[in-house]
From TrEMBL:
The name this protein goes by in its record: Alanine-glyoxylate transaminase / serine-glyoxylate transaminase / serine-pyruvate transaminase
Classification via InterPro entries: Aminotrans_V_dom (IPR000192), Aminotrans_V_PyrdxlP_BS (IPR020578), PyrdxlP-dep_Trfase (IPR015424), PyrdxlP-dep_Trfase_major (IPR015421), PyrdxlP-dep_Trfase_small (IPR015422), SP_NH2Trfase/AEP_transaminase (IPR024169)
Highest taxon in the source lineage: Bacteria
Lineage: Bacteria, Pseudomonadati, Bdellovibrionota, Oligoflexia, Oligoflexales
Keywords: Aminotransferase, Pyridoxal phosphate, Pyruvate, Transferase
């Protein structure tokens, strides 16, 4: 028998970055310490209590009383898939709003699940009006409507007021992507009539990637329980997963225990801060960052009335090397920002202000470093052109 030689690798020692990209966001020491606590079994009574806590706190963050509110044991993309495959059956018609990468992704997932997919489209960075959604809904007469609340590829925030009422008037169902919006701006699941919503742990929840909170209305849960065909995915079949998260505590899969510890700590911090205070913090710091970015001559891709505060997408100036600037920010200043996706690749920087990465220090540090990088690219930028306006806005807002 021949045994392959073990590889020689360096010790694990990742750098401490300032994470200001589209995710993951920075996490607190409290979250890291929680994840280092001793493991218990995934059916241990202590862990079952933690599961109950996480469900209760997620209901608060989602602003819902939905019983079926859990963190899926996978990343946000699995949350998207869970919402689609549990509700969609072969031939069901779904209308999906596409104004960025993640609307397109939702359409792809729905098509793979056997849905008849119809799309309504807008230029990237724009949002859909209630009238536009109403017209498409009445024209196509689908069973489901899918919208991205916070489009991570463009920084656009989709208004949802009135849409749930529109959809429910025809006995339809509203599915919402809240991956980037949850805990950074209001996500009012019950008030807005959202039937299925998904998010990710690594954005404004300020927890490492690996969990996907979802919530289903009772109407949506009834669709799941009355299906005539099996859910396309065994792993994401919530009729079985809820046997583990519900009263029976029946084994379905081995939950990521340490990740749920981290989520517990992150959600506790949100509860202690309070949702309204947290939303206001993200909005205030966005206004400060926006003042600084505009002072540096950068233009936003989304209209001011519909910007996602925690994801700031700005156009890269002509003559500036996208990759070079992001590399210099990382190497010289230890700051990560994101590049563009899809149609915006090489054209946009995506700057995150999420959770623990949403603070005065991060805003002022980034603006100073970005000024340096832009000057290095030959841009005519005045001294303090970004930091000055941001500081003035901070003083004006009293933060």
């Amino acid at each position: 028998m021949s045994i392959q030689q073990a590889p020689q690798v360096k010790s694990l020692n990742p750098p401490r970055r300032v994470l200001m990209g589209p995710g993951p966001s920075d996490v607190s020491d409290r979250v890291r310490e929680a994840m280092a606590k001793p493991l218990v079994g995934h059916l241990d009574p202590e862990f079952l209590s933690i599961m109950d806590d996480n469900q209760s706190m997620l209901r608060y963050v989602f602003q819902t009383n939905n019983e079926l509110t859990i963190p899926i044991s996978a990343t946000g993309s699995a949350g998207m898939e869970a919402c689609i495959v549990n509700l969609i059956q072969e031939g069901d018609k779904i209308l999906i709003g596409v104004n960025g990468v993640f609307g397109k992704r939702m359409a792809d997932v729905a098509e793979r699940a056997g849905a008849e997919v119809v799309t309504i489209e807008k230029p990237w960075g724009e949002v859909f009006s209630l009238a536009e959604v109403k017209n498409a809904w009445q024209t196509h007469k689908p069973k489901f409507l899918g919208l991205v609340h916070g489009e991570t590829s463009t920084g656009a925030l989709q208004p949802l007021d009135g849409i749930g009422e529109l959809v429910h008037g025809d006995d339809g169902f509203l599915i919402v992507d809240a991956v980037t919006s949850l805990a950074g701006v209001p996500v009012m699941v019950d008030e807005w009539g959202i039937d299925a919503v998904y998010s990710g742990s690594q954005k404004c929840l300020s927890c490492p990637p690996g969990l996907a909170p979802v919530s289903f209305s009772q109407r949506a849960a009834d669709v799941l329980s009355s299906r005539k065909s099996k859910v396309q995915s065994w792993y994401l079949d919530l009729s079985m997963v809820m046997g583990y998260w519900g009263g029976e505590r029946a084994y379905h899969h081995t939950a990521p225990v340490s990740m749920n510890y981290g989520l517990h700590a992150a959600l506790q911090q949100i509860c202690e801060e309070g949702l309204e205070t947290r939303w206001q913090r993200h909005d205030n710091l966005h206004r400060c960052l926006a003042a600084g970015l505009e002072g540096l001559g950068l233009q936003f891709m989304a209209d001011k009335a519909h910007r996602l505060p925690q994801l700031n997408a700005v156009a890269i100036p002509d003559g500036v090397d996208d990759a070079k600037v992001r590399r210099r920010l990382l190497q010289d200043f230890n700051i990560e920002i994101g590049g563009g996706l899809g149609a915006f690749k090489g054209k946009v920087w995506r700057i995150g202000l999420m959770g623990d990465a949403c603070g005065k220090n991060q805003v002022l540090t980034l603006l100073g470093a970005l000024e340096y990088c832009l000057k290095g690219e030959g841009q005519k930028v005045g001294a303090g052109a970004g930091v000055g306006p941001a500081s003035d806005m901070m003083l004006e807002l009293g933060i």
